[in-house]
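Question (not urgent): is this output format expected?
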Amino acid sequence: MYRLCIEKLRDAAATKGDKTAYAIHRRTGIAESAAYRMMSGESQPDLISMLRIHYAYGVAIESLMEPAELVKEAA
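Got this back:
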């Protein structure tokens, strides 16, 4: 199982000047509430959202993911 690495997404978004969930929502078209939940770690993006992130920030989807085991160990 893999999860979104929020820090990697923040880094990718920052390259375009997007530092908030709202800015990510505006650039990607992901629903505002979904962007906030995703950035807080409350939910995981679906494939369509990941594709929107990919096209908006020019990053490979797999580069934004990490094994879920790493997330559990860090918590």
